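thought: fold this chain, then report.
action: predict
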Amino acid sequence: MDRQQTSPPQGMVLLPVRPEAGRRLVLVTVFVCAACGLVYELELVALATYLLGDSVTQASVVLSLMVFAMGVGSLLAKRLRCRAAVGFGLLEAALALVGGLSAMALYASFAWFGDSVVALVVFSLTIGVLIGAEIPLLMSLIQRISRRDADGTVADLFAADYVGALVGGLAFPFLLLPWLGELTGALGTGAVNAVAGGTLVLWLFRADLTPRWRARLLMVNALVLALLAGATVMVDDFEEAARRAVYGPEVRVAVRTGVQEVVLTGAPSTPPDLFLNGRLKVRGHDEHRYHEALVHPAMHGPHERVLILGGGDGLAAREVLRHPDVRALTVVELDPEVIRLARSDPGLTALNDHAYHDPRVRVVTADAFAWLRQHHEKYDVIVSDLPDPGITASTKLYSLEFYGLARRALADGGRLVVHAGPTARPRTYWTVDATLRAAGFGTAAYRVRCAEPGAASGPERFRATDRGTTDWGLLLAAEGRTPRLGIGPDAPPLRSETQDTLAQEASAAERTRLPDLPPSTLVHPRYTP
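observation:
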């Protein structure tokens, strides 16, 4: 901000308090508005990541658009400096309304139109312009109180702005998100924003307003607060309606955990479908095709001690426990709510054959990467039933370092099986293969076709409204050798997999091979959504 922009306007304003107290009130308002502004940004990033996936891309889009728009807003604010009090009052009312309703609008766009990209861009730009216009107008207002040097005033304003951003950034994940959730948290932030801006203008700078403008601003702020309050009252009904638009009318269970949203759908008399963060993980009527192919080829050999990474739904555990010579099974799942549902929901427990009631099963609630680093037990079989590598949060679970830890956990002659995303995305699939090979494994590639084309029931990243995946890509790995792909003679009767179908699908998977791909590491992830 140059000296011409920060020079104080001619004349002073009559305040209801001493000038020094008025100056402090302006700085407090800067602090509150900065905190609210950062909460709006984080709300958009969090909700866009949940709805669209790939947190790095969504954070980059939101933050870059907002920073650009803030520059535009600063330039546009110069036109309002001659009527700074009126301009700031209208600006904060607009920001409170747009920011407060942004999360609901983004969720509505996803639920009823199947896409949130346009809404994300529009709200990022709009909120950025409004935030960017705040500081120039507040600079004009504070200079109406005191004719202090411009440099000192700028320093005070930006100090209050940065501290407010710090508080807002910490309040969002530790207070607003766990206590209020994304939608109510955004609406509450909008209300705080409206009260702070309205109080500053209508009380501290009321002498700068004509009676007509005082009445107008009072009505505008009252309307904004009424709209935010009404939306808050309707949040539960809105969420239920949006959830039904996404998942269909037969939502049985919907729980927002500290990790993700968990939804079970389907009629009580049918096997349930399981969605995690809006993405279909289990399609009840054909999930056996995926889980049989995932587990039983890896069980061809010693399998007394088995480790499942992910798979909290208990369906991979069900297949493992069908082998009577399994002595111990450890399941490492990040979300305890998924485990709770797999133990208690009638439909899910019927589907997993009450796997968690088996005394051979030990459940650990932990991040798979961190758990492997801290534990040194040996396992004959490791089943990696984890989310798709195309999701940014999952890339570390498909990294060279992760497979190094898995290799350390394998007993001599042990086998690792990995869900690696559909072969329809060959670059992602064969990057997993290249990463396993770089970690010292030999691999055998194969796939499983969906019972219905486009109907995913493995842990794919597609939203409930998405279609297009036709298979699950799997990789069987063994240290230093290429494992034999097959089903052991002692395997229990299977509904879908046979030696012939495995051989056919292995050949089909090989036809999609992309050679010479580099491995993915923690510092250089190579998976694309």
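thought: worth noting. Residues 19-240 form a domain with the Growth Hormone; Chain: A; fold (CATH 1.20.1250).
final: tokens above.
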